[in-house]
């Protein structure tokens, strides 16, 4: 069963020293795009490992990963005197430009100042383990959501394929009658132009033109594409690109069919409408 590329996953883990919260969100994308936000002094050491994890577990989608880390033993990672100096410097700057923000705002600005002054710090084994446990759990939740959304997409696409097949069956049922009528009309027109004495030639010319109107090949190919489409919808693999290609091929056959036999436009227009909706849904499939 194919997966959607849309979903979200959360995870929280903690120890005596750390609390790690991780949110992972994905939307549709042509390839695999990964954005990671979190403490830059820590991401410096683990960002590539996180990216490799995503690449191992997903093949397509645009991913956003947000990592929040709370240090329970704050005094071990913050130099209180330096932070106090940062706060005082921020207050002094704000007073000079006649601003009086709340303590919370001063804290936020001072924290950014302090963070910019810090050097990258490689996470210890405990913190690294918490981050990747959270990453694994969030990705599992995300996969569950993507699967549920994928099932909904398959259901909708299958119903639209059924409608296309229904219109195709009507065309196949009526094509011989429509072709014969068109052929007879052409015979009469050619007779008018050439005269009754050329009735045999009119029959031959009309038959040649009618042969060019034959849509048997288009019907056969369209049936084959629909069959392949249904097979792929049952496959346990990344199929989004393959389905997109099949949509293009199906559109080509429906278009050719409509051009050859304009009398079937009432069906081909409906088929194109359903196919366009299928194509939109396919853009969300991994």
What's the total number of strands?
A: 4
Shape: elongated
| Strand percentage | 5-15%
Structure annotation, total helices: 8
- Low-confidence blocks of residues: none
Query: How much helicity do the residues have?
Result: 55-70%
* String of helices and strands: EEEHEHHHHHHH
Biggest β-sheet: count, sense, barrel? 4 strands, mixed
Query: Which class best fits the helix and strand makeup?
Result: alpha+beta
Number of domains: 2
The end-to-end distance, rounded to whole angstroms, is 11 Å
What features would you describe in this structure?
It contains 8 helices and 4 strands; from the N terminus they run E-E-E-H-E-H-H-H-H-H-H-H. The protein has 2 domains: 7-149, no CATH class; 150-282, no CATH class. It is elongated. The chain is an alpha+beta fold and 286 residues long.
Briefly, what is this?
The chain is α+β, with helices and mostly antiparallel strands and 286 residues long. Helices cover 67% and strands 12% of the residues. The chain folds into two domains: 7-149, no CATH class; 150-282, no CATH class.
Which key phrases capture this entry?
286 residues, 4-stranded mixed beta sheet, alpha+beta
């Amino acid at each position: 069963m194919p997966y959607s590329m849309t979903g979200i996953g959360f995870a929280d883990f903690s120890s005596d020293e750390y609390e790690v919260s991780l949110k992972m969100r994905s939307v549709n994308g042509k390839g695999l795009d990964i954005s990671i936000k979190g403490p830059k002094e820590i991401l410096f050491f683990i960002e590539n490992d996180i990216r490799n994890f995503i690449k191992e577990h997903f093949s397509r989608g645009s991913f956003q990963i947000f990592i929040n880390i709370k240090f329970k033993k704050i005094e071990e990672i913050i130099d209180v005197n330096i932070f106090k100096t940062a706060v005082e410097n921020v207050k002094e700057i704000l007073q000079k430009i006649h601003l009086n923000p709340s303590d919370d705002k001063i804290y936020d600005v001072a924290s950014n100042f302090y963070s910019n002054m810090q050097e990258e710090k490689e996470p210890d084994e405990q913190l690294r383990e918490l981050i990747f446990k959270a990453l694994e759990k969030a990705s599992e939740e995300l996969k569950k959501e993507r699967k549920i959304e994928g099932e909904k997409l398959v259901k909708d696409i299958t119903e639209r394929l059924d409608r296309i097949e229904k219109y195709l069956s009507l065309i196949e049922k009526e094509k011989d009658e429509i072709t014969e009528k068109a052929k007879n009309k052409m015979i009469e027109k050619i007779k008018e132009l050439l005269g009754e004495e050329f009735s045999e030639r009119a029959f031959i010319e009309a038959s040649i033109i009618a042969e060019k109107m034959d849509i048997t090949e288009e019907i056969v190919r369209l049936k084959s594409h629909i069959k392949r489409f249904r097979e792929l919808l049952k496959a346990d693999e990344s199929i989004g690109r393959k389905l997109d290609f099949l949509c293009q091929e199906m559109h080509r056959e429906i278009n050719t069919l409509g051009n050859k036999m304009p009398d079937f436009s009432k069906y081909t227009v409906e088929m194109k409408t359903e196919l366009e909706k299928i194509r939109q849904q396919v853009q969300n499939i991994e």
